[in-house]
């Protein structure tokens, strides 16, 4: 992994960690995801494996669309409650909203876990695998409210993974790209 990719990925992950900061956190997390996407694009291009970047993008898109659709159902349920309609309809919409957002989070994090597990194999840095697993298990555990903390720890581990990954020599990178074809 070259130094540019390490720095972009590390800073991107770090900004995502800082996403919990009130007010500025959302902007930091968004910038973090953009930096991480650039780093993964660079890494996938240097390895001749476009699947890394496409899986990451799939995960992000699934997550964003799922949260957006879930929010629409959630707002619908709140509006139903405020208009004193049948409670069962409003609560049904809440269940649908939660189910959509939960499924999107789990499926989106699965794609990210897949990407980081592959990066762990290539870089021989097991922290990428651990970080990806923590993101995935954090998504699953959001039902019991500890999932957000587990995912947050996963982003911390990924930050450390990017910054501690050894830089490969040019000859090794060229050899792996040829071997990957």
Automatic annotation (TrEMBL):
The keyword Transmembrane helix applies. Keywords: Membrane, Transmembrane, Transmembrane helix. InterPro entries: DUF996. The chain crosses the membrane at residues 7-40, 60-81, 88-111, 134-163. It comes from the Bacteria. This is Putative membrane protein. It comes from Thermovibrio guaymasensis.
């Amino acid at each position: 992994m070259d130094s540019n990719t390490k720095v972009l990925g590390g800073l991107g992950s770090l900004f995502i960690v800082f996403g919990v900061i009130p007010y500025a956190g959302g902007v930091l997390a968004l910038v973090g995801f953009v930096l991480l996407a650039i780093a993964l694009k660079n890494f996938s291009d240097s390895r001749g494996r476009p699947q890394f970047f496409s899986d990451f993008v799939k995960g992000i898109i699934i997550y964003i669309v799922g949260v957006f659709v879930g929010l629409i159902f959630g707002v619908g349920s709140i509006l139903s409650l405020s208009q004193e309609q049948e409670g069962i309809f409003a609560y049904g919409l809440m269940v649908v909203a939660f189910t959509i957002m939960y499924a999107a989070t789990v499926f989106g994090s699965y794609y990210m876990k897949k990407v980081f597990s592959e990066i762990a194999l290539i870089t021989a840095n097991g922290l990428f695998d651990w970080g990806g697993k923590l993101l995935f298990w954090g998504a699953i555990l959001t039902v019991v409210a500890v999932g957000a903390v587990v995912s947050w720890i996963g982003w911390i581990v990924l930050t450390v993974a990017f910054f501690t990954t050894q830089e490969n020599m040019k000859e090794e990178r060229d050899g792996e790209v040829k071997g990957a074809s």
